[in-house]
Amino acid sequence: MLSVHRVHLPSEIPIVGCELTPYVLVKCADGSVVSGDAIELNPTRGHLLGYKWYRIQSDKKVAVCSVHPTEPATLQCLMCIKAKIPITKSYHCTSKCFADAWQHHRVLHECAAVAANENGQDDDEVYGRLNSNASAASGAIYPVVITQRNGGETWFEVGHSKSYTPSADDIGHALKFDCFVIDAETKLPLGVPTSLTTSRVIPAPSPTPRRMVSVSGNDVSGHPEVGNRSSSGGSFTVLSYNVLSDAYATSDQYSYCPSWALAWTYRRQNLLREIVSYRADILCLQEVQSDHYDDFFAPELDKHGYQAFFKKKTTEVFSGNANTVDGCATFFRRDRFSHVKKYEVEFNKAAQSLIDAIVPFPQKKTAFNRLIKDNIALIVVLEAKFSNQSNENPGRRQLICVANTHINVSQDLKDIKIWQVHTLLKGLEKIATTADIPMLVCGDFSAVPGSGPHSLIAMGRIDPLHPDLNVDPLGIVRPANKLTHQLPLVSAYTSFARAGNIALEQKKKIDPATNEPLFTNCTRDFIGTSDYIFYSADTLTVESLLELLDEGCLRKDTALPSPEWSSDHIALLAELRLKPKNRR
Fold it and tell me: Which residues pair with 282 in a beta bridge?
């Protein structure tokens, strides 16, 4: 007879909004053990599998800390209740937790005040002792049935599928999963269910809202949360974000991050919430896993009005599962842009041509191993559906070229990084010669400010004495005078250094030696900048930028990724405005 051998969950902590799908192993009559999925696809001798989910509800409601969701709450911010902020965000485990989080917590109050058009609140006590009777209950989608009472506990049946997505009603309660064999004919259960009980459900920690900061003198302070803003006239917004491929998000690499916060079922929802909140007109995402592009990013962002293009890395070096190959995805809002043309840059193809042209036959294998790295770039030409109000030719099409790339990460291959960047820039120069077209070059360039690749993009050349040119076994970056381009590219975030008094707080997060952010990538072992949004300064000007994050705030969770931020990189977002034709 068929029997359930074992059930277990990949994550030990259930989170609101994150689907739970247990692994089920079934023992067959011959003693073999197979996946429960195989039984569902091919019922064995009239047997099926049945499932039930229960919420184990104690008579005493347990609230959890909004900052440390695995800890019970002892404090509640009364200002959150007055401002009608979601109650789960009002809880804190200790007074120190509340004090440490205040700098970012108060942004919630500011956003609520703007949303409600309120200019002030009563000067009451900021926080009070937690009322243990506070509840965040909401209507349940599944018809809840009380099935059993046991002392001070009540079991509510909340689902009868293999998967279950915890809701706000489940916060603070454990869940129980039953799996059992069913007679396919009578539909009656056979034998005793095999069960598992989860830890208490926690609310999904959400990133603290980041504000747009003006760098042009135009006041955007009335809109503290970026999601409240929308582009108008000749301005538009572009986001660049390395979202951390699930294939790289391992506990070995990021042991400081709780396993539940590393799970893709959690990270995908947190990333989506963050990305959608920015309401950017153009999204340039890197490290997007190909199966996650198809199954998640493309369909989910389509619901928010985005059209998408994707280019996955080539696989001449990669030897893993083809579905987990990552790449670059570019999205744009259909109501703001239309697609004109797409170019795909495969650095492997360019490398092969270079090897055939300049490398002697005995060295070709060595050159191949050094140059072939599977990196790519995706270039999309868009036509704006909005007009530049000062445009002297209002009927003329306004095109914008957007490049999205992830350059090779190896620090031992500085020559390859420079060569890949130069190859991309030469391709963009060809596009620029065909039209008067503003350029955006976004991505993770795996290069710190002042490095060879960064200098090449931002300065148009590399100093012949630059140390990155010292290692060049294939002769591909010498002489240095061949490493040039004519595109007037400027890094958007250097605008903070030129913004005067309007961005004083952000200047503390800028490296005065390079005018670039102190970091865009923050792990336990590395902190520095590798992500950029470059723009053509002859056709575009920066209006505002998404504020940078404080290292101290991130270090409370050791580093990135964390329960609050689901990538090891931070998102960059720039609002740009098209320059009038007569000023170019």
Answer: 238, 332
User: In degrees rounded to 5, what are phi and psi of residue 355?
Assistant: -60, -45
Q: Is there a contact between 226 and 279 (Cβ–Cβ < 8 Å)?
A: yes
Residue with tokens 């969770």, as numbered in its chain:
557
pLDDT for residue 128: 38
How many Å apart are CA 7 and CA 26, to the nearest integer?
A: 9
Q: Are 573 and 440 spatial neighbours (Cβ–Cβ below 8 Å)?
A: no
Give how far Cα 153 sits from Cα of 56, 271, 336, 341, 497, Å. 6, 35, 53, 61, 59
Nearby residues of 346 by Cβ (< 8 Å), 6 or more positions away = 314, 376
What's the pLDDT score for residue 129?
Answer: 40
Helices 347-358 and 414-434, axial angle in degrees (round to 10): 100
- CB burial of residue 527 (10 Å; 0-12, 13-18, 19+): middle
Contact residues for 522 (Cβ-Cβ < 8 A; gap 6+)? 551, 554, 559, 560, 568, 570
The SS3 assignment for 42 reads coil
Rounded Cα distance, 416 and 399, in Å: 31
Of 276, 223, 220, 282, the closest CA to residue 543 belongs to 220
Judging by beta carbons within 10 Å of its beta carbon (0-12, 13-18, 19+), is residue 498 exposed, middle or buried?
exposed
Tell me what pLDDT residue 430 has.
96
pLDDT of residue 140: 38
State the residue for tokens 């064999």. 181
Query: What parts of the chain have a pLDDT lower than 50?
Result: 118-142, 144, 218-224, 391
pLDDT in the model for residue 44 = 67
Q: What integer pLDDT is reported at residue 559 of this predicted model?
A: 96
Q: What is the DSSP string of 496-556?
A: GGGSGGGGHHHHTTB-TTTSSBS-SEE-SS-EE--EEEEEETTTEEEEEEEPPPPHHHHHT
- C-alpha span between 306 and 333 (Å, rounded): 4
CA distance 314 to 337: 28
Which are the contacts of 90, defined by CB distance < 8 A and separation ≥ 6?
A: 66, 76, 77, 78, 80, 81
pTM, to two decimals: 0.84
Residue recorded with tokens 């381009």: 485
Instruction: Supply φ then ψ for residue 541, to 5 degrees.
Output: -135, 145
The two structure tokens encoding residue 396: 């003329």
Structure tokens at 232: 């108008």
d(CA 138, CA 144): 12
3-state secondary structure (DSSP) of residue 442: strand
| DSSP code per residue over 45-70 | TTEEEEEEEEEEEESS---B-SSSTT
Angle between helix axes 414-434 and 452-459 (nearest 10 degrees) is 20
Query: How many whole angstroms from its chain centre is CA 125?
Result: 36
Per-residue tokens: 124: 């009451």
- Say if CB 105 and CB 95 are below 8 A apart: no
Q: What are the structure tokens assigned to 228, written together?
A: 């409240």
User: How many angstroms separate the CA atoms of 499 and 221, rounded?
Assistant: 15
Q: What is the pLDDT of residues 293-336, one digit of tens each?
A: 999 999 999 999 999 999 999 999 887 888 899 999 999 999 99
pLDDT digits (tens, 9 = 90+) for 528-569: 999 999 999 999 999 999 999 999 989 988 999 999 999 999
403: Cα within 13 Å, side-chain hemisphere: 30
The identity of residue 51, as a single letter, is Y
